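pipeline/complex-builder :: batch 7 item 3
reading input block
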Amino acid sequence: MMRLSWFNVVSLTLGFAFLYIPMIILVIFSFNESKLVTVWAGFSTKWYGELLQNEAFLSAAWVTLKVAVMSSTLATVLGTMAAHVLVRGGRFMGRTLFSGMIYAPLVMPEVITGLSLLLLFIGIGLDRGVMTVVLAHTTFSMCYVSVVVSSRLVTFDRSLEEAALDLGCSPLDAFRLVTLPIIAPAVISGWLLAFTLSLDDLVIASFTTGPSATTLPIKIFSAVRLGVSPEINALSTLMIGIVTVGVISASLISKQNLIRQRKEERQAVRAQ
Amino acid sequence: MMRRFLLISVPYFWLLILFLVPFVIVLKISLSDTALSIPPYTPTFDWSDMGAFFRALDFENFLFLTEDDLYWKAYLSSLKIAVISTFFTLLIGYPIAYGMARAPEEWRPTLMMLVILPFWTSFLIRVYAWMGILSSEGFLNQFLLWTGIISEPLTILNTNTAVYIGIVYTYLPFMILPIYSALDRMDGSLIEAAEDLGCSRLLAFWLVTVPLSRNGIIAGSFLVFIPALGEFVIPSLLGGSGTLMIGKVLWEEFFSNRDWPVASAVAVVLLLILVIPIVLFQRNQQKQAEAEQ
């Protein structure tokens, strides 16, 4: 084992300080009494109270949640299918184009994706609102899902599936009973990724939404443009809190699963 | 057979209609006349008469981009900002990734999670956090005034410096993770061998560690450079009126000036600029995948 040098310790400390101090300051000042966000005037939770009474933010949060749930679920189904095609599809016409279309949205600037989708929606005369944002979010997040799922499918032992087919499963049952449980962790993390991407997106939603559907990032962006406000700090703190709890519990669960899986494997080996 | 067809065609057609066709439309509008595409824009979408369309093709919008030097300056300044901030992200990210790779085995999952956590946190909020820090009465100035390093508050918010800080901060995890995964795979005994053979530690690092993490450096740099080039949120929140970035120009052309053909032409040119780094990035990823097999 290599030892950490003082240089490693310093760079890790400074690096993580850089990553976390801005967010910590944000969280601390969400509990500030004063409206001036840079001057501390005593502890208060009043901004959280005001936030919960702000109809505009609440309805935007509801729209965002709806969009995120719908688009991430659709994206997970489509992305898993796409991953299957990429890894197992064999040869078919336009395969290169297909894999190109999977990877391109990952690096496409959001302004271009947003602009092009808006022009499409106008071109085919689709009314812009929740539905168009869902379509837009599904399109780019299915690509992330398919990358995550295909990396799991590549290492998947195909003979398990073949055994199920030999034993009389229909292909759909073999997928449902054998493949899906094995790739489930990747599918779930794909869903989570798609969900977060959708919650987080400002640019593509701004292009593809209509006046009836303002998402939370759009709302935050227009408020933040006017400057720093304690209410936004409170909202940010809530969002950071939810994400932190989510990520930590997800990693704890996956760690436990890994331990259990190793234990079962050892037992299986012993039983033989 | 039917099932296979369905499996392939559903995601295929989804992407064709919602990813490829929109690009064709952007291309088409960028080549159309401004007069034609004033609301309600219907004439631009007349697909039936392609012959007439090709006759009417005009590069006026692209010519316009070359005539007004705003666009050239915006492309150049985006490139400059993206290159400089990628360099600083590498400079800051490499030592962190290196420290992580040398940390005791049992720390690594935690360190890894600490790098990934900001990535799951809202991008907008992470950019917003810097507005309170960099403003003239913000925390950075308060701190520097308190320590006595400066006597007058510095103007950082609404300048290019703030944009650099914002890009480095938000994209740092994208740089750290690929470098860390390259360093993590490295065989530690190689360094020992180099040191046994008389290399100094610094020389061993430069001659052994850096070349072995090359793929990580390349992947990380592209992952920062490509999105930074088209960035919109960071320049519009942290940058000032003097900060020219093409993502912002496209946004304003579209939402404020409502000039769709010019916005589309700006998008097409941005895409052409990005094709080179995207292809290089894909090639690097492919090489890496092949090396792993």
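note: The two ends of chain B are 31 Å apart (CA to CA).
queue -> next item
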